[in-house]
Write a structure and sequence with these properties.
- Chain A: It comes from Bosea spartocytisi.
- The complex is a heterodimer of chains A (490) and B (449).
- Chain A has one domain.
- In chain A, 23% of the residues lie in helices and 32% in strands.
- Chain A is built from twelve helices and 24 strands.
- In chain A, strands 4-3-7-9-12-14-17-20-22-24 form a ten-stranded mixed β-sheet, covered by helices on one side. A six-stranded parallel β-barrel of chain A has the order 13-15-18-21-19-16.
- In chain A, α2 packs antiparallel against α3.
- In chain A, 57% of the residues are buried.
- Chain B is an alpha/beta fold and 449 residues long.
- Chain B folds into two domains: 315 residues, no CATH class; 62 residues, no CATH class.
- In chain B, a hairpin with a 2-residue loop joins β1 and β2.
- Classes of the chains: A alpha/beta (490), B alpha/beta (449).
- The interface between A and B is large, with 42 and 38 residues.
- β24 of chain A pairs antiparallel with β19 of chain B, so a sheet runs across the interface.
Chain lengths: 490, 449
């Protein structure tokens, strides 16, 4: 079956030619010379005033990176990246490390205003009911310009700041957890990130605390020829809960820019982390010129018993997406979830999916991935579900659907399902008809059409998350939810 | 990441030497000779397939073949071979290969039905027939497989069967491939079946060993089926030496409005890699690939398949059932490719596995690669243990646990076996399933509580 008209229109409305966030902010910036050498790493570390141990850690990563080769197994094509033709650091000159919002360059504030990101706490308070407040960490090129609601969060014991600040203020936590989920040499881009990472968020939620508000980071690439190397570390201590949202945009340019991030989540006993992404990097034009290369390593470690990590992603941007938010289900009874909608248009290439590694006993995981490809784009779901010998009682349910609009795009599914224990139950499902027949029946009985019912069941979870998104483009993301599953293929 | 090919292993070096020594005497005219040379050059560049190659991820042939055995160069018709043949109860035209070499004396060549012609492969290779290279090459999706390249380079014999236009064969054609198994040998054989327009036939391939010596077998069967033909292929691989290592390739090119079905039964087969490369060459055709894998001990069974929907309006169905006990490993890697113009493709791929105990492993990778927008393609994969509810249901009706378990497993395998059209062949397969279940029970691998 081909896609229905409504879906085609929806996808068109977010086509690459409709990219709204492509403006550039003119700013004076601080940049080192182009290229990547030990000196670049030292420069970044010095600019951030980092302690000696951090510099050594970076240099070690850099030396290892030099011995590695770029992976080619993903189903994406791009010309070789010249790592010496990039800027690895770019910070707005005016008002660096501001003490309050008043010291931040008004041009930057204007940028966030245009993007619809509320940075002034009183504005947020004035406009929205208190329970909908969101604390924002705004990262502009290589630096975090502001983090809101820090005081209020501190009262609850929650640490929410930029990672650079965490290295200064909470070195013991950073040392204890950094690179324990994504090792320095995990992969080519993670190692590169370890050497040159600039900013990102750090969250620590102490024992038994339910984080009183949503946390979010908004990443903006502004400078030309600049790579962004974000590093985020989130730790939920025993019994803690945190929900974190991430959004990203970049200006329209003819060149390709590299975004190589590492995100690490750690959930201890009974803790829960909910991580949502709305990725809307500049996707390039319809012919594939320009756009962001989004090469990201995201991994969560359910380290404690009965812990839970949930990834939700809405992917519409980037020229190339290469990311697999994963869960290591180490603690007994831990749970991993992955919900994804990836829409590709123009000449975009998406190779994304997840890994659920069941190591502990009675661990469960759920994967729901939906890829929609239009134009000349290619969308690949690549996922792995594996159960270790000792992961008795492991349970997984996977459902991935893809939808093609037009005859020049491609949709591919590459799932790996590996069971090494007889008590594991793994189901990989790719047909729409089998989504909880009783649920379908229930909805249909109440007057919903089958399609509406399926959309409701599969996407109920996403809706819940998206409604809380503080960003303007959440409106577009929400539109995606109504996209029909009709005509989808496994 | 560049695939690094390390230094040649001992087995690779032996194979290189074997090819150099034997290429002059391996059968074939100039075209075949070129095919062999090219294939071997391809193998030499890449070496034996290993786990860093995505399509061989779970079956590391380089590690499995520590040494390459001497090439079998003749049929060793031992008493054990004759006994095995006598025990095989299956009617139809019987064509026997012993150690990969066609044995006319053991075959029933007097009963060749009208419209069927049989030749040994070695004869066919030297005949200057048109299109021979094309037939031997098979679908392009298998072209870069090194396991197949080795077969092309070193194939010695097999049978070459042609079925004339419109022929409807009542009895199956049974190709029995026996390893004499009195010495450790490497066997490279290939058979070809050309089914002309409108023909109907069942081709059964039975692969067994008569002796205990471990064999290295690299076999292939090539089908080219004409428009409106209906061909069913059934492969039974059983009674192999536990330490034997096999690669069995199936190459099929299917014409328009045709039906092609292949079913593979695997039990007691040591280490086996099956690879199916199948292509739709004409519209409105149906292809079905199915199989049952019964694994115990340290057995390893890999089913890797690529179905190439090259034209519109093709229907493909894949269903593989794996039951793995002991320390065995089951692998299913399926890939359905839908080319840009292959609209209205209907594809469905399923792999179900039951793990009988801890220690058994199942790897599933059902892939879809779709470039056309008006298609219906689905895939499913499950891994689980025997459903407790089903056992309870049967035991509540008075069946002891072992029987209840056997019944559930039999039904599980039967879901795929029921697609075998020929009743006698289906019964033979189900009989093999039962005998496997009995052997398992006799070896006390069945829980009694």
């Amino acid at each position: 079956m081909a896609a229905v008209q409504e879906t085609i229109d929806q996808v068109k409305s977010i086509d690459v030619t409709e990219y709204k966030y492509g403006f550039v902010t003119e700013l004076e910036v601080d940049k080192p010379a182009k290229g990547l050498t030990e000196d670049t790493v030292r420069y970044i570390s010095a600019r951030k005033n980092e302690p000696e141990w951090m510099l050594e850690w970076r240099l070690d990563a850099f030396r290892r990176w030099k011995t590695m080769t770029e992976p080619t197994w993903s189903r994406v094509n791009y010309p070789p990246i010249d790592y010496q033709d990039l800027y690895y650091y770019a910070a707005p000159k005016k008002g660096a490390s501001p003490k309050s919002l008043d010291e931040v360059d008004p041009a930057i504030l204007e940028t966030y205003k245009k993007l619809g990101i509320p940075l002034r706490e009183q504005e947020i308070l004035a406009g929205v009911a208190p329970e909908n407040r969101v604390a924002v960490d705004a990262v502009f090129d290589s630096v975090s310009v502001v983090t809101t609601f820090k005081k209020e969060l501190a009262q609850a014991g929650v640490i929410f700041c930029s990672i650079s600040e965490a290295i200064q203020e909470h070195p013991e936590l950073v040392k204890k957890y950094l690179a324990t989920v994504v090792p320095v040499t995990d992969n080519y881009f993670a190692t590169l990130n370890s050497a040159v990472f600039t900013d990102g968020s750090f969250v620590y939620v102490p024992k038994g605390v339910r984080c009183p508000m949503e946390l979010s980071t908004y990443f903006r690439i502004n400078e030309q020829n600049t790579g962004q190397f974000e590093r985020t570390l989130i730790i939920a201590d025993e019994g803690a809960y945190v929900s974190y949202l991430e959004g990203c945009t970049a200006p329209k340019r003819d060149e390709n820019q590299l975004h190589a991030a590492v995100v690490e989540l750690i959930a201890l006993d009974d803790a829960e982390i909910k991580y949502s992404t709305v990725q809307n990097w500049y996707p390039g034009d319809a012919e594939g010129k320009g756009g962001i290369y989004n090469f990201v390593t995201k991994r969560g470690d359910c380290r404690g018993k009965n812990s839970k990590i949930s990834w939700t992603q809405v992917e519409t941007g980037s020229a190339i997406t290469w990311k697999y938010p994963s869960c290591i289900l180490r603690g007994d009874g831990s749970r991993g979830e992955f919900y994804s909608i990836a829409v590709s248009n123009g000449a975009q290439q998406v190779d994304s999916g997840t890994k659920m590694l069941h190591l502990g006993k009675n661990t469960t995981s759920k994967i729901i991935a939906k890829g929609i490809a239009a134009g000349k784009s290619d969308s690949t779901y690549r996922g792995m579900v594996s159960a270790h010998r000792k992961a008795t009682g492991a349970r997984n349910f996977t459902n991935c659907d893809s939808l093609l609009i037009g005859d020049q795009c491609g949709a591919h599914t590459i799932p790996y399902i590996e069971a090494k224990t007889a008590t594991a139950i793994f189901e990989h499902e790719a047909t729409t008809s089998k989504i909880g027949e009783d649920q379908l029946f229930y909805c249909q009985q109440r007057g919903l059409s089958e399609e509406e019912a399926v959309a409701l069941i599969v996407n109920g979870f996403v809706k819940e998350v998206l409604q809380q998104l503080p960003m303007e483009f959440a409106v577009e993301a929400q539109k995606l939810i109504t996209i029909s599953l009709e005509g989808s293929v496994g | 990441m560049a695939i690094v090919t390390p230094l040649k292993t001992a087995a690779e070096q032996t194979l290189i030497q074997q090819f150099a020594d034997s290429k002059a005497e391996l059968p074939g005219g100039p075209a075949v000779r070129k095919l062999r040379e090219d294939a071997f050059a391809g193998f030499e560049a890449k070496g034996l397939p290993h786990r860093r190659l995505e399509s061989w991820r779970y079956t590391d042939l380089r590690a499995l073949l520590r040494e390459a055995r001497p090439l079998a160069d003749g049929a060793a018709v031992t008493e054990a071979v004759k006994a095995r043949l006598a025990a095989l109860k299956l009617d139809g035209l019987r064509l026997v290969l012993v150690d990969g070499v066609f044995a006319p004396d053991l075959s029933t060549l007097d009963d060749i039905p009208e419209g069927v012609s049989v030749q040994s492969l070695s004869e066919a290779l030297v005949s200057q027939r048109e299109g021979l290279s094309r037939v031997l090459s098979g679908p392009s999706v298998g072209a870069d497989d090194t396991g197949l390249m080795l077969n092309t380079a070193l194939m010695r014999d097999g049978v070459f069967v042609e079925i004339a236009e419109g022929r409807n064969l009542e009895q199956p054609i049974v190709i029995v491939s026996l390893a004499s198994g009195h010495e450790e040998r490497a066997v490279f054989h290939r058979s070809v079946v050309l089914a002309a327009q409108g023909s109907r036939a069942t081709i059964v391939e039975v692969s067994e060993a008569a002796g205990e010596a471990a064999q290295q077998i690299n076999g292939a069967i090539v089908f080219e089926t004409g428009d409106e033909s209906e061909i069913q292929h059934v492969r039974i691989v059983t009674r192999q030496a536990a330490a034997s290592v096999q690669v069995q390739s199936l190459l099929a090119t299917v014409g328009a409005q045709a039906k092609f079905d292949s079913f593979a039964f695997v039990a007691r087969a040591g280490t086996l890699r099956q690879q199916h490369f199948v292509r739709f060459a004409g519209e409105h055709s149906e292809i079905g690939l199915r199989g049952v894998n019964l694994l115990r001990g340290s057995e390893h069974s890999d089913v890797t398949l690529i179905v190439d929907h090259e034209v519109p309006h093709g229907t493909s169905r894949e269903l593989f059932k794996t039951i793995a006990g002991g320390e065995s490993t089951g692998v299913f890697q399926g890939k359905v490719v839908v080319r840009p113009h292959a609209q209205k493709t209907d594809g469905s791929m399923k792999s179900n596995a039951l793990l009988l105990n801890d220690g058994a492993t199942m790897f599933n990778k059902p892939e879809l690669e779709i470039f056309a927008d008006d298609v219906v393609c689905g895939h499913g994969a499950t891994v689980a243990q025997i459903d407790g509810d089903q056992l309870f249901y049967l035991m509540a009706r008075g069946l002891p646990r072992p029987q209840a378990e056997a019944l559930v497993l039999q039904a599980f395998a039967g879901e795929a076996a029921e697609f075998i059209g020929d009743e006698n062949v289906r019964e033979l397969v189900m009989h093999e399933v039962e005998s496997w279940l009995q052997a398992r029970e006799a070896a006390s691998e069945v829980s009694t509580v």
